[in-house]
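idk why but the lab printer keeps eating my pages so im just putting this in chat instead. protein + zinc ion:
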Amino acid sequence: MRDGNCIFCKIANGEIPSATVFEDEDFRVILDLGPASKGHALILPKHHFKDLCEADPAVAAKILPLAGKVGQAMIKELRASGFNVVQNNGASAGQTVFHLHVHVIPRYDGGPLMVSWVPGGATAEELAETAEAIRRGI
Ligand code: AMP
Ligand code: ZN
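predcted complex ->
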């Protein structure tokens, strides 16, 4: 399925040119236009899913192995020393393009700190109550 108004549908299916680093029947992997670091890539499924909640599980299951392959290529060919795999769902989580995509962001020694948060705190009761709520929904 494709959404005629979706820019990532057009890029993933080759209607709009992109700096492509990988393509197969399910995905196109492109370079982000506003890279967080050199080589920042986006894994785009060719089918339109708004986010991870809507994704076909068979397609979603292929994403992490592909992210690993792309990250390894960044280490080998760009001399990155590591990489982050980031995937945003919903505006509150920072999603700005509502076509499922996964960021693979190479990291370099001495580069800026990214993808981090200030650890909070929670009591054992709070953790148990929250865990129970999520368990109910799965
Ligand atoms: P997110 O905030 O997770 O929705 O990420 C959207 C990402 O898409 C951002 O990092 C943008 O820089 C990137 N982006 C938006 N439009 C394009 C485009 N036409 N080509 C490549 N990357 C894009
Ligand atoms: Zn789309």
